[in-house]
Amino acid sequence: MRTDAIVVGAGIVGISVALHLQKAGRSVLLVDRGQPGGETSYGNAGLIQREGVYPYGFPHDFGALIRYAMNNTIDAHYHWNAIPKLAPFLWSYWMHSRASQHEAIAHKYATLIEHCVSEHDALAQKAGATDLLRRKGWMKVFRTEVERDARLTEAQRWKRDFGLNHRALDAEALRAEEPHLDQSLIGGLHWTDPVTVIDPLGLSKAYLALFEKLGGRFAQGDAGTLTQDGDRWSVTLADSTKALGMDAIVALGPWADVLTNRLGYRLPLAVKRGYHMHYKPLGKAVLNHPVLDTERGYFLAPMRQGVRLTTGAEFANRDAPKTPVQLARAEPIAKTLFPLGERLDAEPWLGNRPCTPDMMPIIGPAPKHRNLWFSFGHAHHGLTLAAVTGRMVAEMISGQKVFVDPTPFAPARFA
């Protein structure tokens, strides 16, 4: 079969790229080995982080480094046998996370973030998925004055520099918003601009349905077979047929390097693994907003499936067996924060976040191949930036003026 474009990888980023290309009048084949939206895109905290102008950096304060060295925290965990392989990435990540570097990155990254809500709104409306979006924002909650004051000062600076809106909550105001949280909390920071998603997989499916309604096709196949075939790109589908497309877009998330390495690229990609579990609230307890327990490093989010507890980053080899120790550390603490009842999943979910050392995604034309495009490396912000990325890639391929300057995110920066 022949098509204008082949998108390999059907996570939320790949689906959004395919959808925008289809909207632009291109015929598009979307290919994945599994079910669309079923991997990393499923397991996130459901945040479209309009406030997330500073991508998640590597801590530089001495206390955090000591805590991480002990390897017993909720927000970070590492496999010793993975460190030699990860060391070059971690060193570069640490260097890019220095205050001056991080600030410079934030001003580039903000050009993507500022459109994240409006672009998702546009797709969700066309996909009939606005019922999956909530406009209550999300909260950081605090146990100590030191942490509270530091985060509120930071929020005020971000308001000044980026126009981000927030509310400072004292203990009484926090209890009014979240009466079932631990009453000993001293306050919170309420980010009011973000939108939250109560079913990330449902959102992926809704976007996919719109893509197919517009004439797009999804097929299962081995994205790793993507090969240049004359003046076109080919991929082998599960039924052994070969699909040919003029353009090919790699949106394989944490598996992108498997393909890009074979094509001769040595991009500095790594993964951060993460876990989640769903719980039934005890009694009539209700969680009204997604909540970060700031000093402990885990997240609670109300979802259709129950209250989702997500952990921080695990630094390990991508395909290593599950080691949900962070979830085991977080669960008893989370139950004191909010009355969580029985587990609703048979086992913890594990996903991989595709990361770059400069904390910015790789979006744009591949430097060594004609009509090959990259769209991956979104780290913690795959859901947040999916719709923005999809529009950018479609505009680049179509030769239109790109609504966000793609230069800072170009693959060529690692050439």
TrEMBL record:
Domain FAD dependent oxidoreductase: 4-396
SUPFAM superfamilies the record matches: FAD-linked reductases, C-terminal domain, FAD/NAD(P)-binding domain
Superkingdom, taxonomy of origin: Bacteria
EC annotation from Swiss-Prot or TrEMBL: 1.-.-.-
Keywords: Oxidoreductase
EC top class named in words: oxidoreductase
Gene Ontology MF: a single term: oxidoreductase activity
Name of the featured protein: NAD(P)/FAD-dependent oxidoreductase
